[in-house]
Write a structure and sequence with these properties.
alpha/beta; Rossmann fold; 2 domains; nine-stranded mixed sheet; three-stranded mixed sheet; 12 strands; elongated
Length: 223
């Protein structure tokens, strides 16, 4: 009698194991591979640009696809942010994307671009006024460094409207009050945080066309 019960339990466990293996194999099968990707809140002008992102998702297993995996695929598009997503079995996914605000508008010989984190440039498509104008032939490293500076120093948006790198590789920062500040190292722009206080203490500087920045305590005034 005990032998019969033991065989019954073994048979039951074997069937359960076979069923689990079958279910796992089925879930991991191509039946659940993503074949359709629907993106909501996407500007029509970006549809062509995100085609590569959509192709990355197609063929991935819908059941096992995680939020962080989708965000990883989106790293190539720092102008887009994943808000949420819905899986529709067996092979469709709906993504809700938001457009990230640009750090500035970059003007160069190649055209007009929106600047994002890590120096990422994206062809400008919006009709709104520029947030902060950047002009000149900046290297990839300079764009990367500038994007970091803009993200970490909000005072630049509060007090300035544009930054220009001239042909002599001098940086010029233009304030909302019409003052041009010239400096020689991009990282010096972070030291201009107290400029507003300096100008308030020295109102005669407002009448000058250009200030040359050497350090946080030394300016050269040009009439």
């Amino acid at each position: 009698m005990g032998m019969t019960k033991s065989k019954h339990n073994y048979f039951k466990q074997t069937l359960t194991l076979i069923f689990c293996i079958f279910c796992l194999a089925f879930v991991k099968s191509s039946f659940f591979d993503i074949k359709e990707v629907e993106i909501q809140n996407l500007n029509p002008s970006l549809e062509k640009e995100v085609k590569h992102f959509v192709n990355k998702l197609k063929g991935k297993n819908l059941v096992f696809l995680k939020f962080n995996q989708i965000k990883e695929y989106l790293k190539e598009y720092p102008n887009l942010e994943l808000k949420n997503y819905n899986k529709i079995l067996p092979n469709k996914i709906i993504l809700k994307l938001n457009t990230v605000e640009e750090l500035g508008t970059y003007y160069c010989k190649k055209g007009f671009f929106d600047l994002y984190e890590e120096g990422f440039l994206f062809s400008r498509y919006k009709k709104e006024d520029e947030k902060f104008i950047i002009e000149g032939d900046l290297s990839k490293d300079e764009l990367r460094e500038l994007s970091k500076i803009l993200k970490e120093n909000n005072f630049l948006y509060e007090n300035f409207i544009a930054l220009k790198l001239d042909e002599e590789k001098n940086w010029k920062l233009f304030s909302k009050d019409g003052v041009c500040i010239k400096f020689f190292d991009l990282n010096d722009v972070k030291n201009l945080k107290n400029l507003k206080d300096i100008l308030i203490k020295c109102p005669e500087l407002y009448s000058k066309k250009e200030l040359t920045f050497f350090n946080k305590n030394l300016f050269l005034v040009t009439n």
